[in-house]
Amino acid sequence: MKQELVHVIAGNLFAISDAQGDIEVDPQTPVGLFAYDTRFLSHWVLRIDGERINALARDDLTYFETRFFLVPGAASHYVDADMSIIRHRSIHDCFHENITVLNHSSQPAEYTVRVEMASDFTDIVEVGQLRQRAVEVTADPAGQRLVLRYQRDRFVRETTVRSTVPAEVDEQGMTFRIRIAPEGKWETDLHVSVTMGGEEGRDLRADLQSHQQTVRTGMREDLAQWLDRAPQLVAERSGLEELYHGSLADLEALRYKPLSYRERVPIGGLPWAMGLCGRDAIITCFQTMAFTPELTPATLRMLALMQGGQLDDALDEEPGKILAQLRYGETGTFSDRTSALYYGAADTTPLFVVLLDEYERWSGDADLVRELRHPARMALDWIDEYGDLTGDGYLRYQRRNERDGTINQCWKDSPDAIVDAQGRQSAFPRATCELQGYAYDAKRRGARLAREFWGDPAYADRLEREAAALKERFNRDFWLPQREYYALALDPYGEPVDALASNIGHLLWSGIVADDRAETVAEHLVGPRLFSGWGVRTFAAGQRTYNPVGAHLGAVWPSDNALIAAGLRRYRLDAQAARIAAGIFDMAQTLGGAPPGVIAGYERSLTTYPVQLTTSCRPQAWASGALLMLLGTMLGLRPTGDNLLVNPAVPEGFGRLELLDIPGRWGHSDAYARDRSTERRRRLR
How far apart are CA 190 and CA 301, in angstroms? Predict the structure, then answer.
């Protein structure tokens, strides 16, 4: 098995190392110091007297700092070590490492401490296909610094390493020849600052003297305030409060400021999605509305700012379309691959309108709804003008960028994700079922916004008629009467893609399912083909291409399950929703720490342990947000006018739940609930 990897993270800036704190290139994993999609350190190795060191223990203090406790020699010699090393690593607007060498003997000791340093300035999307770059290295012994620089036209990236004590600086690193008194210690602070040049660049260098204590103190205060602003959870179930606080901390860690933007927005997840991903950001905001509502206005404004305004095949851009992703790496800047701005998603645009309406329902922020009237109407127009590619009234996708655009432009964006039960791929353009639910929900919500805030009742009436017609048409064309579930998709000729998949749960969330079919859909979702025991699989077992370790062909996503559970409760299918919520919370507590973005779809009774996929992000914003959404779903939180409705359906074994100071247009409210077994025991007493 591979050695454990350790990370520190602060928004878009993160570092991944091995268990000793060393960084060495791995062609399969983004090990290194990264910022804005570029690796600024690819080699960072500590040696004592020419030898590598080994880990005794580690103390993960917060998401942005950790300490490694190390000794020289093999494990069998640990007990005899006359010296030990502590590496205290933290990250904010730069990377900081304090190295302390301790002499445990009664005699003076001399050591040669060496830190090897290098950068390849690789774009994170190229980690698996490394290419050589001409890196300029400047050793500056007088300034106690090493400068690594890469430039391609106006794309400039620079890494500067500084030491607070004298060092021998060469082009491969820094050497310290030290003498330590008996029972004494020696230490140095190493600061690694990253600089981005070019027209859109920004200097991220931290002040060398003030960084170490001031920044860490400020970040701890920011985290404490973030947690204090969120509602307080009091839970009878052991470990649930810790899981809740951990999810909130994950969300704070995964916020960053895009360049030239003043507010922080949620990024996708560590390590592969450390930028603004439109779908992930929107879903994360929706999930966390009752807990961290401040995420939403910044996200909506950022997405509106980046909204498509023209036809551009390379970007998959169309007027009104909402961004799929924003990247700052070299490949995007020069369009070596998909561009820095990329719009290849068919779901982000209707979901933008859904989020705007939901935020107003919770916050009462009518000003934001009026401010974003034009972007919202452009998004609604896009659904019919550019999303309806065959003129049959269904939202479809087909990439414009045939070279390297995303093939499947829905949340299941793997190339092989949209197949029928026999594994056959349908022709393009494809209309996946959940896209129709999103479009239906967007039109209904857009109608409310038009009538109540935009002063346009005629537009509202039109949207409502279109939504009603879409629902009727959808329930006719997508329903498979012999199988009693909705098709995964329709091909361009109106033929159904007959696979059974978790997408049908999103239909419940959007409200497009006919009332008399909801219970049948629910039976499939919690039946043995889709439900693993930990959660709902993306693709049902028994179909030809089912694969429990296939991300979209059988694995289990917490984010997917959170939407499904909310949809079940929308149709008053409380027992099924509770079963899904219980499975996801069991998974998260069994694994401990941040919930992974995806786990394998193995039957729970087979593995008895949730198996995390190697491609999974952890932490991931919409995985941590999923736990919050599931908590809100169990409590049945729903804004109704100026009041908060609480309608609990808590799974057995959770005991009593209290969520205090829930923010919204009502000020702050509390929610209380007990599971049924607890309530029965209380009555018996």
Answer: 38
